Amino acid sequence: MIIDGEKIAGGIIAELKAKSKPEKNLTVIQVGNEPTMVSFIKKKEAIAREIGIRFEINRNPESTDGESLRQSISEAARNPECGGIVLQLPLPARINRGEMIREIPPQKDVDNLSGKSPVLAPAALVVEKIIQSTNYDLKNATVAVVGLGILVGKPVSEWLTDKCARLLTFDSGSDLGKLKEANVIISGVGQAGLIKTDLLKEETLVIDFGYEVKDGKTRGDFGPKEVDSKNITYTPTPGGTGPILVAALFENFYKLNSL
Predict the structure, then answer these.
(1) What are phi and psi of 169, to 5 degrees?
(2) Distance separating alpha carbons of residues 10 and 44, to the nearest angstrom
(3) Of 138, 224, 229, 232, which sits 20 to 30 A from 118 (CA to CA)?
């Protein structure tokens, strides 16, 4: 079964439209103009326009240094009209990501990059939404998280800690052969076709956040071949976790501005 991310995202957006919208703006801090990053920002801007949220983009050139970016984030943090900040990642390698994240107040940290915001990280919220939509029972499941990055693997692993029977984590160099032990696989590596069907047991649920552009096509970590023979349920790329992630970000924005 293919999980329809657009449908789940549409449900979240419909619920938000029915609520009183925040009067403050959502501010995105952008460094450089990498095409994939710009595309993600445009998707967020489109949803903001659809819902009626004020959306601001603070554009910084690729040459921006850490101090200039820190000041840019600090300025948004102090702005009483700003109700949420998105620090668009990745940042140039020369900039200390941790220092930049510390400039975002927890009450404006819609991505919960600091781990101190009162809202779930969007990736964890996406997993929660998918589990709910598929009526999956995590309590007796072995769950594998592949990739332990700040946006997906780390927050998802933390969220899962007390919600499943067994949690397996895989970082670079891990033996993916052990994925056969998992009932649920959540991946955010960004390596097209990394997880092949023959690594999975029957009736596995695959939630794929990873993406890589190859030959002009966006492909996920999971290469869904012969899924029918194993009755695999999975999120496609594109159209899977991506739309839900954007909707989850706005759900967090609403929550932070209703506290």
Answers:
(1) -120, 140
(2) 14
(3) 138
How many CB atoms within 10 Å of residue 234? 22
What does CATH list as the number for 21-109? 3.40.50.10860
Q: How far apart are CA 188 and CA 89, in angstroms?
A: 14
Alpha-carbon distance values, 237 to 70, 220, 242 (Å): 34, 5, 8
| Tens of pLDDT, residues 236-259 | 999 999 999 999 999 999 999 997
Sequence length of the chain is 259
| Span(s) in the chain for CATH 3.40.50.720 | 122-241
Using the structure block, give the residue that is written with the tokens 């952008």: 30
Peptide bond before residue 238 is cis, with ω within 30 degrees of 0: yes
Query: Which two tokens mark 145?
Result: 């998280």
**Which part of the chain is CATH 3.40.50.10860?**
21-109
Tell me the whole-structure pTM to 2 decimals: 0.95
CA distance 169 to 185: 10
Question: For residue 152, what are the CA distances in angstroms to 10, 121, 140, 231, 254?
Answer: 22, 8, 22, 25, 21
Its CATH class, for the domain covering 122-241, is alpha beta
**158 forms bridges with which residues in the sheet?**
none
Write the pLDDT tens digit of every residue in 118-174.
999 999 999 999 999 999 999 999 999 999 999 999 999 999 999 999 999 999 889
